[in-house]
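[INFO] parsing input record for Solute carrier organic anion transporter family member
[DEBUG] input buffer:
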Amino acid sequence: MEISSKENTRFFSNNTILPVDRSSFKSESSASKEKQSCCGGLKIFLGALSFVYFAKALSGSYLKSTITQIERRFDIPSSLVGVIDGSFEIGNLLIIILVSYFGAKLHRPRIIGAGCLIMSAGTFLIAMPQFFMGRYRYERFPSTVNSTVNISPCLQDKSQTPLSALEKSQAKINAGCEKEAGSSMWIYVLLGNLLRGIGETPIQPLGITYIDDYAIEENAALYIGCVQTVAIIGPIFGFLLGSLCAKLYVDIGFVDLDSVTITQKDVQWVGAWWLGYLIAGAISILAGIPFWFLPKHLPKPESRKDSSTSSEHSKFIIEDNKDQHKSYQQQGKIAEMAKGKSLEFLSRLLNFFPSLKSLFGNPVYILYLCASIIQFNSLIGMVTYKPKYIEQQYGQTSSKTNFVIGLINIPAVAFGIFSGGLVMKKFRIGVLGAAKLSLGSSFFGYLLLLSLFAMGCENSEVAGLTMSYHGTKQMTDYEQALFSECNSGCSCSKHDWDPICGENGVTYISACLAGCQASNGTGKNTVFFNCSCVGTFESSQSSSAVLGPCQKGNECPKMFLYFLVISVITSYTLSVGGTPGYILLLRCIKPHLKSFALGIYTLAIRVLAGIPAPVYFGVAIDTTCLKWGSKRCGGRGACRLYDSSALRYVYLGLTLVLGTVSIFFSVAVLWVLRKKSSPPDETLSANGERGNCGTKSRKDNFVNVDCLIQSTYWPEKETRL
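[DEBUG] output buffer:
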């Protein structure tokens, strides 16, 4: 691209803006050395930031993969797990405004490095309860434990059980209650996740703005897309790590694995959830090391030095020069008066509220912020409970669920984000085009999500819950229906959950409720005989049963395959609008407010989406529970069985309703941009140059959008700056 000296002189005379904080730049260095220094330093920062995004995404996605494990390990409902998940956002809330507003004035790389250390400390804290609490105890009938005493599952006469064994069992329960009564170890997980949120706070607002400040204008979108794409590799490894740890028993290395009588298909199974947090914490420490050796500033690219403006000014935003000069002159006077650190801090504090007023006076920023908040409510709730949904809806194990999400679903998201950045660079899409691309991806993504309503499985056949003991659909109260004539002679508890699978393909909550009179074998190989409830079915030719629940219907594996295909396409479609959305956010605000605006944006997402979404999604999912577990000392524990149909409508319905509302706000963003834009021929002068977009008086709190749009009909676009 070439520009004549006359054009270059006129360009500088009309658009020169006083530079901000350029004291660290060497004004007399040669152009080639500065270009090499800029590219080299920026590439190092880009690589380091990508690794940090990988580390934080790995630990965050690993937490998502262990939601069901934490729920079972601490015996808590989904709503409380949602509070634990939302504590990460609360940590962001505590310091996000200070970091975003004042962090841009300080040493941004070192602040990011300090955040990595805090993030690793929180990750280690999450794993600590495993070493403080006792071994994991699950509900299991005594006959399935390796013991020489053979106890009938149907205790028609309690004298069948030796008195010493009963006393010993009751003593263990009482001792466990005394220990658990004064301890709620899940609080350590909540505090650790809170600390993770504090450490992660400076990475996004300071890292992204650092790249946007020192990158070549046309490469900024691609760099941001690359960082976000590399960050997606973190969730891939996070879910794969979650899949590996879910296969290992929670107390591996502490107990004899041969004595474990439950399998991965059992809803009481808990994997080695704590192991992945130790690995994620170590990676976070390594990721923060390079930032302690990076400079506070990098040399500006030659293209930006020529225009003496940031990428927002040179490509998207053209402000009234007089207003900008006055603003920088006022800042210069304040800087001269502030001769100490305390006065400088005070001057920044006084500028806080005017900056906040300027941001909230920008209609594009406000509308896009509302659209993002509602959409992130939808996406965060959906992603948080997606592993639980797959496990309960399609009868998959935690290990397989995490493996599928990490290996199939997450790469589609990465490819979608990268595609969005590549399209932005390839076609030189402006703000209006970015808004269209973001809206289109959301619309078609949620449209595809609508088809998942038809890809669910029927409820598992569980006697007394989803069907009666005679094989008919369950219509009465669940708790009252647990007992029937076939088990009326047994001393059973309705709170137990020790499922067995009968020869008739029906799952029974326990061997006692199945009316089983005898058992053979120990541990996982236990077989029950003479089960009176199993023999009540006309199709049943045997009254035996084996340990563990029955698998879902024959159509469920096929539905699961369809679900995966649609889910991958939906994830890609929704992700395409990620990078255009970021560019729209950066280009619709004033350059000196970039870091602050990104911080406010992140704050709003954390407070209004990240914190409440997991909680009310969890509360809604809890309403679909058919069978609750019981704690050893009394009280409701974790859910053992969900109503598949109700879970599908609640989970997908809530996601789609929120997504639809966000689309309406995205349409409003596009409408405002179209209203403020003008035809390309009106913004070009007779000789083909851009006209002065600041001829009309506009309010200072809104950026002139007439020059935000890069027209695809500009004939000399390829040969001019």
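[INFO] The domain at 38-139+183-299 is CATH 1.20.1250.20 (Growth Hormone; Chain: A;).
[INFO] shutting down worker
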